[in-house]
Amino acid sequence: MIAAVMPTYARYDVTLERGEGVHAFATDGRRFLDFGAGIAVASLGHCHPHLVKALQDQAATLWHVSNLYHIPGQERLAERLAANSFADTVFFNNSGGEAVEMGFKMMRKFHAENGDAARFRIISVEGAFHGRSLACIASGRQEKHTAGFGPLTDGFDQVAFDNLNEMRAAVGPETAGIVVEPVQGEGGIRPMSAEYLKGLRAICDEFGLLLMFDEVQCGIGRTGKLYAHEWSGVTPDILASAKGLGGGFPLGATLATARVAEAMNAGSHGSTFGGNPLAMAVGNAVLDVILETGFLDHVTEMAHRLGDGLEALVAKHPGVLEGTRGMGLMQGLKCKGDGGENGELVGLAMAGGLLSVPAGDNVVRLVPPLIIEAADVDAALAILDDACASLAAEAA
User: Fold this and answer.
1) Closest by CA position to 32, among listed 18, 48, 13
2) Which among 37, 84, 138, 257 has most CB atoms closer than 10 A?
3) pLDDT at position 7 over 90
């Protein structure tokens, strides 16, 4: 007999009922230091007072109107995102997957409007995760996401990670653009080098392609800048944003340059709930905090502390850990073994009071709220230390 909630998740045996700052509380009384943050979503922790007030005030005023009318919160949030990024314009949707799919549509529409409708193919890289829609899983190409959903949506090609020669060779007369995550999340917390991103920009410029960055997970301050690609100095044509942008409220955004977005005329795309007043109130509240002077400097400071501590754990537990990887407060611990050890370590850390998230390539993903303090970092490292010791003892 099937459960009323469709069983598409392998859930942990814990029910979280309350959150406060960097902590989440379970129904059985356990308190967890949350370094999963709803998979990099609770960017300002749980129940941040400024976000709570913004949502409550808006909920008492107006919940929903159609996009047939002007929504002042949209205009304000779009202007702020554009003023603090490469973009000239923004479309609001409900999730990262929607933001990515909108970007795919823009790539095709741009070439069609410019007289080259034959250009519709998009190149991604191995290890990518761009969402769960049919187009998104076709772009990501991961077997665990595509199995049973064939035939895959046409129009997507994939090349090896960090290989510019293979990327260049994959470009053909039907290629419309390239999509990458500046820091892969689900693929195992793998940052792309500035040189690689610059190489992608050069390929796109040479062949007349569009460059799209999927910053659903690595954006909104997670690496110490509003968007991770800023560290490289490379400018994309399109960017997908979500997760931390809403701080826990469903909110996605597709950012673009005017040159690309001009192809999206009235009626070419839409959303019933995208950009609703509730989401816009929370999104603006998130930016209020993240754009405060010194906030991103604090993220960088905490990131260095966490990164140094994780490297020390690798040195202390060479039989369990293989290395660290990541940028800012998007860090990964790669476990030794044939696979699955990351899940074991996540479970042991949870038993010790720390929430984390498994990722691909046998990696434990650590994506805490951006408001963490030194004491939180040290507490998480201590729990991970004990978890590694337990895992080593089990293997002995």
Assistant:
1) 18
2) 37
3) yes
Please give the pLDDT value at position 112. 97
Give the separation between CA 191 and CA 38, rounded to whole angstroms: 21
Give the whole-angstrom CA distance, residue 173 versus residue 337. 42
CATH topology of domain 16-34+293-395: Aspartate Aminotransferase, domain 1 (3.90.1150)
The answer to whether the beta carbons of residues 137 and 148 sit under 8 Å apart is: no
Q: What tens digit of pLDDT does each residue of 141-193 get?
A: 999 999 999 999 999 999 999 999 999 999 999 999 999 999 999 999 999 99
Nearest 5°: the CA angle 294, 224, 275 is 95
Amino acid at 322: E
Quick one: tokens of 38? Answer: 């709803």
- 227 closest CA partner among 186, 250, 197, 248: 197
Whole-structure pTM over 0.85, yes or no?
Answer: yes
CATH number of 49-290: 3.40.640.10
Spatial distance between the Cα atoms of 252 and 174, rounded to a whole number of angstroms: 29
Q: Where in 172-236 does DSSP place strands (E)?
A: 175-180, 183-184, 190-191, 210-214
Given the structure tokens 């976000």, which residue do they identify?
Answer: 51
What is the per-residue pLDDT for 72? 97
Give Cα 334 distance to the centre of its chain. Answer: 19
Quick one: pLDDT at residue 85? 98
Q: Which residues pair with 354 in a beta bridge?
A: 33
The pLDDT of residue 394: 85
pLDDT of residue 395: 77
Contact 355, 34 (CB under 8 A): yes
Q: Rounded to an integer, what distance in angstroms lies between the CA atom of residue 166 and that of residue 125? A: 10
